Structures are given as C-alpha cells and as structure tokens.
Amino acid sequence: MKTNVLIIIFAIACFSCKNDVKQVPEQDMKNDSLALMERAKAIHERIITIDTHDDFEISNFTDSINYTQDLSSQVTLPKMKTGGLDVIWLIVYTGQDTLTNAGYKKAYSQAMSKFDAIHRLVDVYAPDQIELALTSDDVKRIHASGKKVAMIGVENGFPIGLDIKNVEKFYNLGARYMSLAHNGHSQLSDSHTGEADGVWLNNGLSDLGKEVIGEMNRLGMMIDVSHPSKEAMKQMIALSKTPIIASHSAARALSNESRNLDDEQLQWLKQNGGVVQVVALDDYLNINKMNTRNKKIIGIQKQVADSLGVKWYASKEEVMALKPQEQNEFFGYYKKVLDLANAKANKIEGLPPNVNVADLVDHIDYIVEKIGIEHVGISSDFDGGGGIEGWNDASETFNVTLELVKRGYTEEEIDLIWGGNLLRVLDEVQAYANSLK
Question: What DSSP assignment string belongs to 97-146?
Fold first, then answer.
C-alpha cells in the first residue's frame, strides 16, 4: 500500500514539473511569433534577393502576353513584387540534340530567339518595371531605383556549335554565366547523366570545351557546373582562373541525385572560391521523401495528365529515355500536372509530406557546415521543374527568408546567402577579365 502511495505522489510531482516546464503563456508565444515575422519581413525588405535560375517560355514574351501580367507561370513581375524577389536570372536554355551542323544550327536559332525575347521584355514591354543588369553595380543601381532586375544565364553550351566566337556573341547579348552541357553530352562537355550508364563522350571536357573555359575567363562570364559531369567539373576548376558557380544544384549527401554536388565536389568548390545555388526542386532536395509520396499519388498524377491530354512518366529513367523534343514537351507540362495532383492529394488524410522550404534550408545548413557560408546561395528553377511547398512561385519568396530567420541566421548571413556570395563571384570573374585588357 505504501509503495502505491509513493508511486502516485511521484507521478503527481512529475506531472506538475512537466506542466511547469512546458507552460508558456499563449500570448507570449504569439508575441514571439509576431516579432520573428516582423524581423524577417524587415530583413527581406532590406536585402537584395537573387534567384539564379528561371526558365521561361517565349510565348510569354509577346506584346499581348508578357510578364507585366500575372500569368500562370511561376515568375511574373506581379509575383516578384508580391514575394519580394528582386533579381531573376532568365535562362537561355536549349535541350541537347544531335552533334551535327543541323543540330547546332537549330539550337543556335533557339538560343537567339530567347535572347531576343529577354531584350524585348526589358527594352520594349516593361522598361519602367525591369532592367537588364550586366554587373553587380548594375544590380545595386537598378534595385535602388525600385525596378526589378533581369540577368541572363545560358543553360547548355550546345548552341555555340563549333564556333568559339559565339561565346563572345552570347556575352555581348548579356549572358553572364553558361553551363557547357545539359541532360546529355555536348560537343564541349560530358553531362552528369552519363553516370547512369557509364558512357562518356569527352572524358570530361573536349578540346573545344577547354578552349571555351579560357574564353569565358577572358570575357568575364561565370562557369556553371550544375549539369556537367563530376570529371568535367574537376577539369573546369583546374583550367579556370576564376571562381565557378553551380547555378541550380544541391547537396548530394542529402539527396542522391547526380546533378547534386557530393562532399568532394563541395570541397573543390570551396577551394576554388565558388558558390553553389541551392535549388528548390523537389527530387534534388529530398528524393526519398518524393519517392514515398509519389508512390501514394501516382494514380492521381496519371488522372490529371489524362484530363489534360498529356502523357505522364512516373520515373526519371522513362523521362531520360525520351528524345530531346519529347523531354522538352514533358517538362513544359510537368509542373502543372504535379501541382494539380498535389492539390488533390493534400486532401487525403495521412498522406506522406511534400518537399518544402525546410528541406531547402536543410541543404543550406549542410553546405554552410561543410564549406562555409561564403559558398552558398539560392535558386528556384521556376518554370523549369522547380518549386516546392512554401516556395512554389515568386510570390512566396519571403517564406525562404522566414525559414532562414527561424534557423538563427543573421541579416548579414542572409544577405550573403540571398545574393551577396553570387555577386562576389561575379565581381571576381569580371575583375580578372578586366585585368587582361
């Protein structure tokens, strides 16, 4: 009987202690949350937010349909204003095709049409709202004027063809970074996709690719390693006189995708002085979470695709086996199908969670710990497959800053992550080019 009494007394005491420890006035919790929110808003307003990878459709760059309107695309000027996204790198992307004169000519034409579309946006359709920047000083000046900022990156050096003079032509049109490959080996560089079958074309860089690295250094164009192979990256760093960037990649230790950078690559990047722009693309942030969720909702995805009259491919292997034109078509509707399916799936109780902003910042935390805060930035890959829960379009950009504040990053650190590091690399690349003149 005495033992039972002692147990009861002990249980009551523990319960009281537990309540004492956890008891926080609800009003204080609300005040703390409001204070954190207001602090995050103030920081977000003061810093310059730079997203280094935004794809686009030329059909959205016309006199009647363009980014001055709130289109269904993930990036528009209204969405940028709502979310406080200051700088977008619009991407001159061409998919990998045959390494023939006909293939090069077609890709060159596609690239030039995208350059032309960007210039129409900033020069004709919305010069009062957005301006093209070529330097970090341009970025700061345009931002101070109240306008949004556009910059240009080239995804895939394929449209250069065999004429190295095209590198300077792209530079003169505003390109300030370029990757030498995409999803498939180019005439310049092997792609990360070669890892799947172990088949390589160039064993890293081709002779022309090596010349292109030197030309990019001479001009002041940043070298992007987000799609080239690991060996190609190694060779680029050995050849380059300037820091490199990974415009839209993440940490492979957290998500085992070949486009992500493993710990060895992160160390190379640190030693080179470069920066990796963590990408808000679900698979690249948490492939395990995505696989678990997709198994549960694949039926819904197929239903949505059928209702739109398009074909759904459930695995990456299926997508990579498609012809270049078929891949481009798939990625054109991929995000729409995914978003509609997720909207339906989120009504299902107990569904595995989606990849979200916390997963994005997990990668930032990891990279900061591994190689330092000076080597990490942010990208979305919007309108190219990117977008996660909490940052699914430019209007939700603030949520990334909020999560960084929650994790304890200071304003100075957030400023570096959101763009300071990237502009530092751009400055160093351009300073080297100027030193040669």
Answer: --SSHHHHHHHHHHHHHHHHHHHHIIIII-TTTEEE-SSHHHHHHHHHHT
Of residues 293, 291, 279, the one with CA closest to residue 315: 291
Exposed (0-12), middle (13-18) or buried (19+): which is 172, by Cβ within 10 Å?
Answer: exposed
Between CA 286 and CA 294 the distance in angstroms is: 12
Half-sphere exposure of 308 (CA within 13 A, CB side): 20
Tell the burial category of 226 from Cβ atoms under 10 Å away from its Cβ (0-12, 13-18, 19+).
Answer: buried
What does the pLDDT look like over 310-334, one tens digit per residue? 999 877 778 878 877 787 788 788 8
* CA angle, 376 then 213 then 86, to 5°: 40
Residue whose C-alpha is closest to residue 275's, from 416, 161, 99, 402: 416
DSSP letter, residue 418: I
End-to-end CA distance of the chain: 94
Beta carbons of 149 and 130 less than 8 angstroms apart: yes
Is this model's pTM higher than 0.85 or not?
yes
Helix (H) or strand (E) holding 326: helix 324-345
The neighbouring-strand residues paired with 54 are 90, 382
Contact criterion met (CB below 8 Å) for 367 and 276: yes
Encode pLDDT of 111-133 as tens digits. 999 999 999 999 999 999 999 99
DSSP reduced 3-state for 35? helix
Q: What is the pLDDT of residues 63-102, one digit of tens each?
A: 999 999 999 999 999 999 999 999 999 999 999 999 999 9
The size of the chain, in residues, is 437
Give the pair of three-digit tokens for residue 374: 């000076």
Q: Quick one: which of 91, 93, 92, 89 has its CA closest to 49?
A: 89
- Whole-number Å distance between alpha carbons of 391 and 378: 12
SS3 percent helix, strand, coil of the chain, rounded to 5, is 55, 15, 30
Distances (CA, A) of 169 to 110, 119, 208: 14, 15, 17
Q: Which two tokens stand for residue 60?
A: 């959205």
CB-CB neighbours of 263 under 10 Å: 14
Quote the DSSP letter at residue 51.
E
CA geometry: angle at 168 spanning 164 and 174, to 5°? 140
The CA angle 255-259-260, to the nearest 5 degrees, is 45
**DSSP H or E run through 177:** strand 175-179
For 280-383, where are the E strands, in sequence order?
376-379
